[in-house]
């Protein structure tokens, strides 16, 4: 990213003040703590006289740390430089980050990466970690910032660390106004109804109802294939069919689930789910062809290398895309590439991720291909590297369609509309559609959860680059985060306060239903309507004129749709 862009973002959304770290330049060892490992000053520095060399670690999370003072509800930005001193044969690149540890007064702890970088290697030299973060609204006893290192055998240098408060606009008014305007201009179009009446018809006897039957905006959830295919889970399937127009199998399409052991393939559970969802009228995303993170890769794949591995992967992608041909709208190609590099490392091919997209695009050019990652919008540790990755894939012309932002918000962290907008604006600079692919918040209190979801959903729906929103589960019985993220709970899928709030937005506030009486509105009725499928009903003297019912679709991008009605 060009520096001018971040300066512009800051000018629009806030300004930076006072440094919270002491000796972020590592000119002395104080007050950095290096408990149980080695820290020394060295001359190989990023700036100033010295940097700090970190070695003799025994666990990944060891790195220099210091206590800082932060306040609940406030926002901050962090940055720092890091340079690796050793590469490992089996792990060509290493994950590094700056981490925040909060100890709350209730004794619990909270960890959040506040600035990170996709995996790096020695040849990358000094790299900058940069991100912004918000502090949850809980009583804090102590906050500590530290470098989260690579594997213990890799020593590294650190320099020029900084944490400053980010003075964001905190008023509740401005963002609502901005998102409302975006919703009006991007999610709605004009409906013009031109009514002509016979001379015998009196205007007060004619009522016109413009009612939206379906929304076109993609709104959905991850679906558990096990529950979905269980004949006793009628309520689960019904809820999905009634409230969502998109879905994504949570696990069933993952390679590990299709082929846990080499040659033992089972596509049935995945295909049953996809066929069932399509029969219910939903569109379906594919998640995911491969997954970059080592723990997510089956042992038989991890045992392979070279051309045999390449062939195995190519065959898996082609076969899976063959089996699902015509059924899926999207595919996440290689999940979480900002976090894992297993395939590149094993094949010694830094460009292999591009090759994966080429294989998938060639196998089925009609399916839209996505990046899918986290720490990019719900938190901002990797937003800038994600923009760089999206630009790289776009310019490589390998069939990338869109940017998937997962959006798993930390427990008890209230989504901040200003931070969300800042991050979405940044990613939108890639000029690609953005999909919220895995939304959830974590709040034990269901009313708080309702507020959190409303803030997140308005921020997304009210951003012009966002093309669709999917939750990552919605039922406490089948949600990876359990009750604290759930929209519905219990065997009867009873709505929680959060579920009521979410459905009120998508099924009431963001749907159109207006009735006009000709004596009030005249013969030219204008309605600003949400995009979707409509019916127009005419009532004369209180009775529906079934012969005059009209249907139409109001599409995104359409300026005005005109309906002509002749009442005689
Ligand atoms: C919303 O923004 C518009 C345009 O900037 C402004 O005219 C209006 O006063 C704002 N309304 C509120 C309630 O802030
Ligand atoms: C309204 O409908 C009448 C009769 O169908 C037609 O003559 C007239 O041009 C229409 N006006 C507009 C503005 O569409
Ligand atoms: C996928 O389908 C294509 C076209 O029908 C076929 O040529 C290819 O062999 C199939 N690949 C796999 C791995 O099933």
TrEMBL record:
SUPFAM superfamilies to which the protein is assigned, alphabetical: (Trans)glycosidases, Galactose-binding domain-like
Signal peptide range: 1-18
Listed GO biological process terms: polysaccharide catabolic process
Keyword Signal: yes
Active-site residues, as the UniProt record annotates them: 438 (nucleophile)
A GO MF term: endo-1,4-beta-xylanase activity
Pfam family, one: Glyco_hydro_10
Segments forming domain GH10: 202-505
Keywords of this entry: Carbohydrate metabolism, Glycosidase, Hydrolase, Polysaccharide degradation, Repeat, Signal
PROSITE patterns xref list: GH10_1, GH10_2
Stored PANTHER family: ENDO-1,4-BETA-XYLANASE 1 (PTHR31490:SF1), GLYCOSYL HYDROLASE (PTHR31490)
Family, per entry: Belongs to the glycosyl hydrolase 10 (cellulase F) family.
Name under which the protein is recorded: GH10 domain-containing protein
């Amino acid at each position: 990213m060009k520096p001018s862009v971040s300066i512009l973002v800051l000018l629009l959304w806030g300004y930076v003040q006072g440094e919270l770290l002491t000796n972020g330049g590592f000119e002395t060892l104080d007050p950095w703590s290096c408990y149980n490992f080695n820290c020394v000053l060295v001359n190989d520095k990023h700036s100033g006289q010295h940097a700090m060399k970190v070695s003799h670690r025994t666990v990944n999370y060891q790195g220099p740390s210091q206590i800082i003072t932060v306040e609940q509800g406030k926002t901050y930005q962090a940055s720092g430089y890091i340079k690796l001193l050793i590469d490992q044969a089996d792990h060509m690149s290493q994950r590094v980050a700056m981490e925040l540890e909060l100890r709350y007064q209730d004794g619990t702890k909270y960890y959040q990466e506040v600035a990170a970088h996709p995996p790096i290697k020695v040849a990358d030299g000094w790299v900058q970690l940069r991100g912004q973060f918000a502090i949850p609204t809980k009583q804090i006893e102590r906050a500590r910032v530290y470098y989260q290192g690579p594997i213990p055998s890799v020593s590294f240098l650190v320099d020029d660390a900084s944490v400053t408060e980010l003075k964001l606009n905190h008023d509740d008014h401005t963002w609502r106004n901005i998102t409302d305007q975006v919703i009006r201009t991007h999610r709605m179009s004009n409906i013009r109804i031109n009514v002509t009446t016979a001379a015998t018809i009196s205007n007060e006897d004619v009522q016109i109802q413009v009612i939206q039957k379906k929304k076109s905006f993609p709104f959905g959830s991850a679906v558990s294939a096990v529950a979905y295919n269980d004949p006793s889970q009628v309520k689960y399937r019904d809820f999905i069919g009634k409230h969502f127009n998109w879905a994504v199998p949570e696990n069933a399409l993952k390679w590990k689930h299709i082929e846990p052991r080499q040659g033992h393939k089972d596509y049935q559970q995945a295909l049953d789910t996809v066929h069932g969802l399509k029969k219910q009228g939903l569109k379906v995303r594919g998640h995911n062809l491969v997954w970059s993170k080592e723990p997510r890769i089956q042992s038989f794949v991890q045992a392979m290398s070279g051309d045999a591995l390449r062939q195995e992967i190519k065959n898996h992608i082609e076969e899976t895309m063959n089996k699902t041909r015509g059924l899926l709208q999207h595919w996440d190609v290689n999940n979480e590439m900002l976090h894992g590099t297993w395939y590149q490392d094993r094949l010694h091919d830094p460009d292999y991720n591009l090759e994966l997209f080429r294989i998938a695009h060639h196998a089925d050019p009609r399916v839209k291909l996505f990046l899918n990652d986290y720490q990019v919008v719900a938190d901002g540790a990797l937003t800038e590297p994600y923009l760089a990755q999206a630009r790289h894939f776009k310019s490589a012309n390998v069939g990338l369609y869109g940017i998937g932002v997962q959006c798993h918000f930390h427990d008890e962290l209230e989504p901040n509309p200003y931070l969300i907008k800042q991050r979405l604006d940044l990613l939108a600079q890639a000029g690609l559609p953005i999909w919220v692919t895995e939304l959830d918040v974590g709040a034990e209190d269901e009313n708080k959860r309702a507020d959190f979801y409303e803030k997140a959903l308005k921020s997304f729906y009210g951003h012009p680059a966002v093309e669709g929103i999917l939750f990552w589960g919605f039922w406490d019985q089948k949600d990876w985060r359990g009750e604290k993220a759930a929209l519905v709970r219990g065997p009867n899928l009873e709505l929680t306060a959060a579920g009521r709030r979410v459905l009120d937005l998508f099924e009431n506030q963001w749907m159109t239903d207006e009735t006009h009486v000709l004596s009030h509105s005249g013969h030219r009725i204008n309605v600003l309507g949400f995009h979707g499928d409509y019916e127009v009903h005419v009532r004369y003297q209180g009775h529906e004129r079934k012969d005059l019912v009209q249907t139409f679709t109001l599409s995104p991008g359409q300026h005005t749709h005109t309906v002509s009605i002749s009442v005689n």
